[in-house]
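Handoff note, outgoing to incoming analyst
You'll be picking up this chain. Sequence as last confirmed:
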Amino acid sequence: MAKIKKGDQVIVISGRDKGKTGRVLEVLKDSDRLVVEGVQRVTKHTKVGQSQRGARTGGIETVEAPIHVSNVMIVDPESKKGTRVGYRLEKVERDGREKTVRIRVAKRSGKDI
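Most recent structure output, in case you need it:
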């Protein structure tokens, strides 16, 4: 089970963007990488072409590149600093059945993420 999911607020703990925070846009499970909003921005050169309406596309644009999951930490909802992730097991009753659910918890403050 992944500790960081799409939509989580994370802080970069190493690399050229150290200290920046952003929201996770995409999780690439096979390569253990994340695409974070506003972090690891690179210039990308795209081939010039035309759309169906006749507008020109392409040129130089800046996009977010993937960053390794070990270089980020989830932001604690209470202290707004980086925290590790733990799990708490909770029994939930649905449709007359009891089911055990894992809930992500911030180790720094103990609050749910």
